[in-house]
Amino acid sequence: MLWTLIRRHLRPYLPHVLAVIVLQLATVLATLYLPSLNADIIDNGVAVGDTDYIWRVGGVMLVVAVVQVITAIASVWFGARVAMGIGRDIRRSVYTRVDRFSTEEMGRFGAPTLITRATNDVQQVQMLVLMTLNFMVMVPIMSIGGIVMAIREDAGLSWLVWVSVPVLMVIVGFLVAKLMPLFQRMQDNIDDINGVMREQIMGIRVVRAFVREEHEAARFERANAALTDTSVRIGRLFVIMGPAITIVLHLATAAVLWFGGHRVDAGLVEVGSLTAFMQYLLQILMAVMMGTFMFMMFPRAIISARRIGEVLATRPTLAEPLAPATLAATDGGATVEFRDVTFAYPGAAAPVLDGVSFTAPAGRTTAIIGSTGAGKTTLVNLIPRLHDATSGQVLLDGVPITDLSRADISATVGLVPQKPYLFSGTVAHNLRFGDPGADDQQLWHALDVAQGTEFVAGRTTGEGEDVATGLASAISQGGTNVSGGQRQRLCIARALVAAPRVYVFDDSFSALDVTTDAKVRAGLAQHTRGATTIIVAQRISTITAADQILVLEAGRIVGRGTHEELLDSSPTYREIVDSQITVEEPV
To answer: Which of 313, 345, 372 is the last residue of a domain?
Structure first.
């Protein structure tokens, strides 16, 4: 999976990779040539007192050293460009795939792990690419070239190479085998701690309202302790690696000096050659050590690539049609039709909707009411195709929504969700989400209809030179710096700016007081005239004027008609009406 992921995103950067290979080849050749020149100076210059020879060969060494530095810097620059580019492209691929996920896929993965996979996991792969590009040429050529050059200087000491390198590789193999499961556990621990933190940040008001800070702190402490424990265990293995490699290097140096000294004393090798051999042996071991550091990153990168691959390999259930149909261009509303629609969430024992059939005529208002858990939100979520029906069909103007492109559906259906959400930015930025080309006049008109003009005009955010008012005032992520009612009105205005043919309000007036609710509905009646309106509501007063009311119970439509008709024909509807009247009577 790691190789497949890298190969897929490496293609645009092949010229850069070729440059890295050429530059590193030049760097390694220069590095291998320097000890030989140093030996030549010692044997043919220092030993015989030839100063001119020392200056001449020393000048060559200086030129070679400068070439080595320049090519090394250039190879790292090209390697960094490739690694950062691949990281950017993988993040883009993950984001693009997640952006197309339906609620089903989002629920299967969960937000915390998707965030980790798009950030931390991508970073692990990115760092591996950087390390690989920096060492992929140097390590093998330095190792092989170093062995050849060492044997060239003194074949009698070559056995030290064949002993030192395998010992180092055994140590590396042992550590990698131990680290692989720990890196998998670490990524899971990061998912867990992200999940806990996200829940606590999103639900901080609930935590404080129920004075559960200590309980949540204990949850975080457990997740934090698990991550710390895994990190410490990984750290212990890394602590072992440093001294183990150092011991091998020191023992190899001592062995060269001991056995090489005897060979110099016996006249079998020159002092310069012995010095060069020791440098080559250290270069070989250093190359193996750098390769070790690179391979130490492989286990975690493999785990991360596997997790990224799971996201990229997941095919969204809400696939775009190969040959999308188009809706007839018209200024009027679109007819919404449900034909024997059944929907069940994955793994659920029973369907949420069972055989639902109805028609919401174009230009009319259809209201949906029912008890909590009756399936109202699930039903309206099928209209903008946030889910696909398990069986049956949902149609817009007679065309199944599965045959329409997402862009067509979005342009036709405007949804104000049950839980309104605003994005960080300004009021204008949020309102233009449905129509980026809308001018300020259109925004103010939508706010006027949604009864948001007064509070938006009076908003001021920032200080000093950064102060902003009205449409330019800042909105925090999620809309946390406005009240629930203001958030709902801004979301209603956002839908109005988009000017769709079908408006879907999913309990979108619940945070409004009765007076504001009535004003918003009066404004909507004028603004949405000609469009199809579908309203999910809990208040009877919100839906009494609807052209058609559907009563939903346990996923089935148990009553339909106008307010007056349902009072006579539907016991469920009458029970809802009576319960609300009873509640209001003492007031």
So the answer is: 313
Q: Is 524 helix (H, G, I), strand (E, B) or coil?
A: helix
Q: At what angle do helices 271-313 and 2-10 cross, to 10 degrees?
A: 90
* Closest C-alpha among 572, 569, 539 to residue 553: 572
- CATH value at residue 92: 1.20.1560.10
Task: Please provide the distance, in angstroms rounded to a whole number, between the alpha carbons at the two ends of the chain.
Answer: 66
**Residues 184 and 100 occupy one common structural domain:** yes
Tokens 């099928």, located at residue: 382
CA distance 26 to 490: 62
What's the domain range around 146? 2-313
What is the CATH classification number for the domain harbouring 463?
A: 3.40.50.300
Backbone angles phi, psi at 358, to 5 degrees: -165, 165
Q: Structure tokens of 20?
A: 């890295």
416: enclosing H helix or E strand = strand 413-416
Q: pTM of the full predicted structure?
A: 0.70
Least confident of 44-48, 212-216, 415-419: 44-48
> How high is the pLDDT of residue 448?
93
Question: Do 212 and 69 share a structural domain?
Answer: yes
Residue pLDDT, tens place only, 313-370: 988 877 788 888 888 777 788 899 999 999 998 777 889 999 999 999 998 999 999 8
Average pLDDT in the 529-541 region? 87
What is the count of structural domains for the chain?
2
Q: Given the DSSP bridges, would you call strands 460-461 and 468-469 parallel, antiparallel or unpaired?
A: antiparallel
User: Is residue 227 included in any domain, yes or no?
Assistant: yes
